[in-house]
UniProtKB/TrEMBL annotation, chains A, B:
<dbReference type="InterPro" id="IPR003488">
    <property type="entry name" value="DprA"/>
</dbReference>
<dbReference type="GO" id="GO:0009294">
    <property type="term" value="P:DNA-mediated transformation"/>
</dbReference>
<comment type="similarity">
    <text>Belongs to the DprA/Smf family.</text>
</comment>
<dbReference type="Pfam" id="PF02481">
    <property type="entry name" value="DNA_processg_A"/>
</dbReference>
<protein>
    <submittedName>
        <fullName>DNA processing protein</fullName>
    </submittedName>
</protein>
<feature type="domain" description="Smf/DprA SLOG">
    <location>
        <begin position="70"/>
        <end position="283"/>
    </location>
</feature>
<dbReference type="InterPro" id="IPR057666">
    <property type="entry name" value="DrpA_SLOG"/>
</dbReference>
Amino acid sequence: MLGEREARMALAGLESLGAIGFAKALAEFGPVDLWDGFVGQAETTTWGRKAAALDLDGLRRATDACGARFLIPGDAEWPVGLSDLDRVQVAQQGGQPVGLWAIGEQLNQLDTAVAVVGARAASGYGEQVALTLAADLAAAGHVVVSGMAFGIDGAAHRGALGVGGRSVAVVACGVDEPYPSAHRQLAAALAETGSIVSELPPGLRPTRYAFLARNRIIAALSSAVVVVEAALRSGAKNTASWASALGRPLFAVPGPVTSSLSATPHRLIRDGEAILCAGAADVESVLAPLGSLPEAESRGEQRPVDRLSPGLFEIREAVLPGEEVVFSQLCARTGQPVLEALANAAELVELGWLEELADGRFRLPRRPAG
Amino acid sequence: MLGEREARMALAGLESLGAIGFAKALAEFGPVDLWDGFVGQAETTTWGRKAAALDLDGLRRATDACGARFLIPGDAEWPVGLSDLDRVQVAQQGGQPVGLWAIGEQLNQLDTAVAVVGARAASGYGEQVALTLAADLAAAGHVVVSGMAFGIDGAAHRGALGVGGRSVAVVACGVDEPYPSAHRQLAAALAETGSIVSELPPGLRPTRYAFLARNRIIAALSSAVVVVEAALRSGAKNTASWASALGRPLFAVPGPVTSSLSATPHRLIRDGEAILCAGAADVESVLAPLGSLPEAESRGEQRPVDRLSPGLFEIREAVLPGEEVVFSQLCARTGQPVLEALANAAELVELGWLEELADGRFRLPRRPAG
C-alpha cells in the first residue's frame, strides 16, 4: 500500500483535470484508498485501466530529473486558496488538484497574489497594459499569476519579472515542457526567479481540456483576477468564471470599443461581473485593508492639475502637449471671454503651468508644476 | 403689464443661467409678477438693474430677424423633460429655463432623445466612436442631443445628420451665433434639418457660466446621456452630474486606459455612476421597453461566430484578418492536438468560416459565413 504522497502522485498521473466525479471520490475515500480502489478496477473502469497502466516509478524519476517538487495539501508551501476549489464547480469542472508539480521558488506569499490573464492573440495595447499592470502590482509586492501563454499571459510574467518581482506560471502541461516552445526563455526565467506549477506530470504536452482545468488553478491561487483582453469566447472568460465562482474579486481592463479583444472585458464590466481596472491602483484599492490607502490619490484623481480652479483648468487643458498656441486659440477652445482667458493664462504662466514664448504663444512647460 | 410670453422673454433676456434664486422666485411669483417686481427694483437689486436696462423691443426684433421661435412652458413643442429641472440642483444651479429660443425643426419626439457629449480636445478614437454611436442611435429613431462644441459634440451631430437623422444642439450663446465659428456649416445644417436651442437671447456670445448652465438643458432634454471622452475635469462631467441628478440613465464609453480622455468615463463606470456603453445597442437595451428587444442579439453577443463550438471557435479566432497561416500555427496558437485541430480546421472550411489555399495555408474568407 502506498503512502499519501505516493498515492497522490499516482492519482495525479491519471490526469483527472478537474473531473468532478474524481474530486468527489477523492474527498470520499481519501487518496490511499481511492488509489487502491482504482487499481482493483483495472478491468472495469476507465480510471482503473489508467491506474493499471501507470508507471509510478517512471513518474518519480521524471519528477526528480527535471528538479520538480511534488506538493500535496498540507505541505507548508501548498497554497491554501486551492481548497476553495472543493466548494464550487464551473462547467462541470471542480476540485482541488490532487497534487502539484512545482519548479522554481517556494509558493509562499500568495495571499495577495493577483492573476493577470487574457487573449493569446492580444493587441499591442493589451500587451502594454498587461506589462505595466503586472510591473506595478509586482513592485507593490503582489505575486503575479498567469498561464505563460502568448499575448497577455507572457506580458504579465515579463512585467513582474522585469521589476524584480515574483511571478507564478500555472501551465497546462508538464512543468518541464515549456509551452508554447517560443516561451522557452520565459520559462527558464520563471524557473530561476519565479515558479512554474502544474497538476499534470512532467513530460506531458498540453490539451484543450488541460487549458480549461488549469484556469481554475490560476483563479484559486490568486486573491484577485484581472482580465486584460479577451475575445467573446476565450480561456480568459473561463478564468473569469472561476474567479466569480470562487469569490475572488474580478477586474477587467477596458479598451477601445472598436477592438473585438475588448468585447469580453466590456461585457464583464457592463454586466457588473467585473470591476473596471484602469491600473494597479484599482486592484490595490480593493485588495488593501480598508483605510490603509489614501483613497483619492491612489486612484490618480488628485493630479496637481485637478486642484486648479475650473477657469484655469479649462485653459490648461486647451493646450495639448507639443503644440504652441496663440491667445485667440485659447479663447476659441475654451469659450472664455477674452479678458477672463487673458487673466487665466497669465495666472497659469505665473504658477508654472504654462510657458509664454517671446512671440506671445503658449505651450506646456517642459516639466509640469505641482 | 406684459403677457406671460412677453414677460418670459423679458426674463430670459436677464440671462439667469440656472441661478437657483431666480428659479425659486419664478416659481413663487410667476413670470408676469416677477417681471413687474424686477422692474420695480431698478434701483435696489441686480436683477432690477438688469430689468430696467433690458430692451424688450430689440429682443423681439432680434428674435424675428434670425427666424427664431421663442418657446415657453405649455407650448406644444416645449420639451416636457425640462420641468424635471425644477426638482434638482447641481453645483448651485437648477431651474427650468424661463423660455427657449429655437431655430430649425419642431422640438418633438424628444421622449427617446439621447445626449452624446464629451471632450472638445477629443481623440480620433473618441470622435469616431461618437460619430458611429450617434449615427446608429439616429438610424434607430433617436434624436441626438449635444452642445455643438468641437470634438465629441460636433462628431455626434454630424453622425446623426449624416444618416438623415435628427439632432438638437443646445448652445451656450444665441441661436444665431454659431459657436465655435468653425462650426458655422454644422450650425447651418442643424438649422436646416435639426434644431438649435438656447435659453440665451439671439446675438449673445458664450460665457463659461453659460456652458455650465447649458449642460443642465442637454441632460433634461434627453432620455439618456452618453459621455464619450472627457478629461478628469470637463463640461461633460458636469452634464453627467445633471443626468444622474435628473435620473436619466448615464452611459460612458470606455477607451484605452492609457488615454487621459478616458479617465472620466472609466471613473464613472468603475464607481457605478455610468453604464458601460460599447455601442448604440447598449443604450437601446436600457431605453427600450422590457421585452421589446431580442436581448442577446441587441448586444452583439450572438455574432454567428459565437454559435461555433469552443473547439471550432478557438481555431477560427486564431486566424487574424489579412494573414495566411500554416497548419502548425493553428496548433501552436490554440494548443489543440494535431488531429483535433485538423478536424476543426476542415469543419470550418466546410462551413465557410475559413478558406484553405492551394498551398495548404488558411485565411479568413472574403465574406464571413453566418
